[in-house]
Amino acid sequence: MTTTFGSFVRAKREKLRKQDSSFSLRRVAARIGVEPSYLSKIERGDHKAYLTEEKIRLLATELGEDPDVLLALSGKISKDVQEIIRRRPELFAQLIRDLKKMPDHAVLRIAREVRDGKW
Amino acid sequence: MTTTFGSFVRAKREKLRKQDSSFSLRRVAARIGVEPSYLSKIERGDHKAYLTEEKIRLLATELGEDPDVLLALSGKISKDVQEIIRRRPELFAQLIRDLKKMPDHAVLRIAREVRDGKW
DNA sequence: CATAGTATGTAGTATATAGTACACATAGAA
DNA sequence: TTCTATGTGTACTATATACTACATACTATG
């Protein structure tokens, strides 16, 4: 069950299509601004077909999915996140490596405390 | 004083060269495995010249600099850090955005507590 | 059954990324 | 002075990324 960007998008689009016929490949392609043949390639996992961050964000909005998740499935990290790390690389690169082995709930706890202004 | 990848590398290399003549552009280029003309372009900031992460790491080792800093100056994020974020994108992308406005000492404190196994 | 809409295959394009190869002019050391 | 090493300019290359354009075949519906 290796979820790829393509299979993930196709599955979600087909699901939405059951309720709403405007979720055909052609119509969705038009809404995000690419040719249908290209979205077709992407959904089928053509290794020479990629979307830019901008189009992935539009697609995420269309499908009601988290843009960061779709970007990740496409092998990308959001530009704004990259920029934050690039500005303080020693600090962030090391912190992320340290957080690597922590379970989700621990990372979430840190995130919550950060948001609550506990620091 | 906009520090670019090129100016940073050139400055550090020239500094090392004062003590050790093996830090000529040609010799360093040979050690990291690129043509001297190419390293020359890079040090002068040619916008069509880039090094791969691998060569940037070799260069960082040569110059005694932090690889993450050199990568950042080249507009890149280490592949291992990208991979960590890609595996848990909702969690990490959001945490990094939340940490954006925090001062270094606060981020450092979190990093220290994470390393000390406080979580 | 006609036809509108749908997915897909093939070919081509533009720009970015990551270099090599080689000639050239100059500065330093023997 | 001769030779060696140095930095740089120019031209060329290959692959990745991010698409368009168009033809074709299928599918569903009025």
Entry summary:
Chain A has helices at residues 5-19, 25-32, 36-43, 53-63, 67-73, 79-87, 89-99, 104-115. Chain A is mostly helical.
Question: What are the defining features of this structure?
Answer:
DNA-binding; 2 domains; homodimer; 0% strand; 434 Repressor (Amino-terminal Domain); mainly alpha; 119 residues; 8 helices
How do the helices and strands line up, and which of them pair or pack?
Two copies of one chain form a homodimer.
Chain A: H1 5-19, H2 25-32, H3 36-43, H4 53-63, H5 67-73, H6 79-87, H7 89-99, H8 104-115
Helix pairs in contact in A: 2-3, 4-5, 6-7
Chain B binds a DNA duplex (30 and 30 nucleotides) through helix 2 and helix 3.
Share of β-strand residues of chain A: under 5%
CATH topology of the largest domain in chain A: 434 Repressor (Amino-terminal Domain)
List the chains of the largest interface with their residue counts.
Answer: A-B, 39 and 39 residues
CATH architecture of the largest domain in chain A: Orthogonal Bundle
Question: What count of domains describes the coordinates of chain A?
Answer: 2
